[in-house]
Each structure stands twice: as structure tokens, then as C-alpha cells.
């Protein structure tokens, strides 16, 4: 039992990484200055993203989430990752337990926490990729082209954004096969960081 507890502690420290000074908002969530602040009307946000030549991504986080902190400090702080996301996606942050008003694609007006429940999101971070055009009469969960529940390393994280950007969900190459192919290409090029 002691070994299991010690292992869990080491794993948590490894996931949390070095304690960097991350900006924390009043809601307790880590903030990126390039995240978009909107009225959280998902159809409107999809349209605004499209007008900017981007895709909409919703990211669910919660206060005190060590995986969210690791994502901000280790993944989103990497210019290769953040530059790609900023160039191609409009990111709107949601608080898994927040009370801000959200308008779902089907017209339901909810709070962030009831939206998370309705859409079935239970892990933080959860990253939700929306289609290029807002469909009518369906929820966000039904409209999402991909969902990334939980925290991952740099290449899995970045490759998911690339796969969605390339509309891999419309093709025959499943994300896992796409990711394996990219990892092999990175390995052959000598660019592979520890994943």
C-alpha cells in the first residue's frame, strides 16, 4: 500500500511538472491571454471563429485541476503548440462547475455546469472541437467532430489539433493511426520529445 501511495505521489508530481508562475483568474482557472472571452453562445462563437478563418474549441477546466495546470504550464506554454492553436482555432474556456450562462446549439440556455452535465463531460481538461458551421437542433456533444477528455503529452495534444484542422474525422485515417504515423515521422526526423 505504501508503494502504491508513493507511486501515485511521484506520478502526480510528474504530471504537474515544475511549479511555474501561471496566471490564475478569479474563478481559479489558469488563463491564456489568447483565449477568447465570449457570451458563450456556441452557434455565435462558431460563426465568429469561421469569420476569423478558424474553428471553435471549447475547453472545460476546474479550479485546482492538476492536469489543467500541467496542460497550461507544459503544453500550452510550448510555442509550437500555442502558435498552431492560435493560428487555427478560437478557444473558449468553460468552468466545469461555473455558473456563467451558455446557449447550446439546440437553443437550450444553461449554466456552464449544467452544460457540462448535459453534454456528458466529466474530466478536466476536456477539449471539444466543433464543426465549421453551426448545425441546428443538436447539442454541442452531438455536433462535436472530436473530443479530447483528459490530459495528454505534447504530441498527442498537438496532433489532435492538427488532425481536426486537416479534417481527419472526415477521412479513413483514425486519429490513433494518424498520431502513430506522425510520431514515426518525428522519430525519423530526430524531433521526438518524450511523450
Automatic annotation (TrEMBL):
Residues 49-133 form the Thioredoxin-like fold domain. This is Thioredoxin fold domain-containing protein. It holds the Pfam family Thioredoxin_2. Keywords: Signal. The keyword Nuclease does not apply. InterPro entries: SoxW, Thioredoxin-like_fold, Thioredoxin-like_sf. CDD domains: SoxW. Residues 1-21 form the signal peptide.
Amino acid at each position: 500500500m505504501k508503494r502504491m501511495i508513493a507511486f501515485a505521489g511521484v506520478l502526480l508530481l510528474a504530471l504537474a511538472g515544475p511549479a511555474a508562475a501561471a496566471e490564475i483568474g478569479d474563478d481559479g482557472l489558469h488563463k491564456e491571454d489568447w483565449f477568447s472571452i465570449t457570451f458563450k453562445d456556441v452557434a455565435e462563437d462558431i460563426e465568429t471563429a469561421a469569420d476569423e478563418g478558424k474553428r471553435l474549441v471549447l475547453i472545460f477546466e476546474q479550479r485546482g485541476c492538476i492536469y489543467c495546470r500541467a496542460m497550461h504550464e507544459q503544453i500550452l506554454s510550448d510555442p509550437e503548440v500555442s502558435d498552431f492553436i492560435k493560428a487555427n482555432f478560437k478557444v473558449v474556456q468553460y468552468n466545469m462547475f461555473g455558473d456563467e450562462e451558455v446557449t447550446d446549439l439546440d437553443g437550450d440556455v444553461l449554466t456552464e455546469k449544467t452544460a457540462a452535465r448535459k453534454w456528458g463531460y466529466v474530466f478536466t481538461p476536456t477539449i471539444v472541437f466543433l464543426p465549421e458551421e453551426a448545425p441546428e437542433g443538436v447539442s454541442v456533444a452531438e455536433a462535436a467532430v472530436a473530443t479530447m477528455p483528459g490530459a495528454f503529452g505534447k504530441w498527442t495534444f498537438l496532433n489532435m489539433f492538427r488532425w481536426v484542422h486537416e479534417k481527419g474525422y472526415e477521412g479513413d485515417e483514425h486519429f490513433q493511426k494518424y498520431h502513430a504515423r506522425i510520431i514515426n515521422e518525428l522519430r525519423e526526423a530526430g524531433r521526438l520529445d518524450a511523450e
